[in-house]
Amino acid sequence: MKYCANCGNPVALRVPEGDDRQRHVCDHCDTVHYQNPRIITGCLPVYEDRVLLCKRAIEPRYGLWTLPAGFMENGETTEQGALRESWEEARATIDISGLYTLFNLPQINQVYLFYRGHLTNLDFGPGLESLEVELFTEQQIPWDELAFPVVNKTLTHYFSDRRENHYPIRSEDLIRRR
Amino acid sequence: MKYCANCGNPVALRVPEGDDRQRHVCDHCDTVHYQNPRIITGCLPVYEDRVLLCKRAIEPRYGLWTLPAGFMENGETTEQGALRESWEEARATIDISGLYTLFNLPQINQVYLFYRGHLTNLDFGPGLESLEVELFTEQQIPWDELAFPVVNKTLTHYFSDRRENHYPIRSEDLIRRR
């Protein structure tokens, strides 16, 4: 951020009075511009013994497999966002069972939420951001071609929890060593 | 948002190519400015049979009672944010037990997360944003002077769940009728 979104004048990076961290501050109109983490919300769509994955048609991780997920939008709930992304990326309609995993990625200011859900039918297929959409059994999962660690971890938890038929909500911080 | 934070020129509000909702777009430097929901993270601090509440010294809801919570900052995890807010607002140090409630407030683009936790000692007191900090038994809770519905709901769940000594994670959407 270089300019004030409110008045167009240059902003300064400094600690505002009464605050304890640097913010982008406009000394012309006195606006403090806060920046906060974003939520990525998605689904773990299940059909019988298989889970749905999308092969990414966009960067980053073009060509690798992921669960349908994306940035939560203003005006929607986390569940609505997860369903919207499942439709956009996989043309899939899902009946959500509940929240399943939460991941903090503080280095990139993201919080991931994945909901467990069941595909309501087999009418799915690639949306604009996917090359392919497929169902995989545990043995078929392309473990070496998964796009993100949060996808690997969510799938690993799922296949383990499925043996117990018990799906506690998992919360994990993925701290990257620098 | 009226001006581009990247180049300072006026932005337009329109649907970018390949998108399906209005964004603030800069036609000078081609930046699309996305706006996303923010996370408010906080604690439900417990000491024996009492819970800690803060009397707000700031608007909105000046003078009403709340659980320590605030906007999650870049670079931290949801738990770290909850602990930071508990320190800032109540000078309280807390041992977190786990995530407890998640609330969607889509009308104001907020997602609330509250963590259950235990006060590690009784050395607490008002931070800059609080007038008072006190411990309350279930009978003492000032139900008519709580600052936010999410606080009321989290406390109600807690006292109910405490009878069973079982604290499932609660997820709820607070949709305001217009």
TrEMBL record, chains A, B:
By its UniProt entry, which Pfam families does this protein fall under? NUDIX (PF00293), Zn_ribbon_Nudix (PF14803)
Q: Which Gene3D superfamilies match?
A: 2.20.70.10, Nucleoside Triphosphate Pyrophosphohydrolase
Which molecular function GO terms apply here? catalytic activity
InterPro entries hit by this protein: NUDIX_hydrolase-like_dom_sf, NUDIX_hydrolase_dom, Nudix_N
* Every Nudix hydrolase domain range: 36-159
Coiled-coil parts of chain: none
Name the CDD domains for this protein: NUDIX_Hydrolase (cd04511)
Q: Which PANTHER family match?
A: NUDIX HYDROLASE 23 (PTHR43222), NUDIX HYDROLASE 23, CHLOROPLASTIC (PTHR43222:SF2)
Q: What name does the UniProt record give this protein?
A: NUDIX domain-containing protein
Which organism was this protein described from? Exilibacterium tricleocarpae
Lineage summary: Bacteria, Pseudomonadati, Pseudomonadota, Gammaproteobacteria, Cellvibrionales
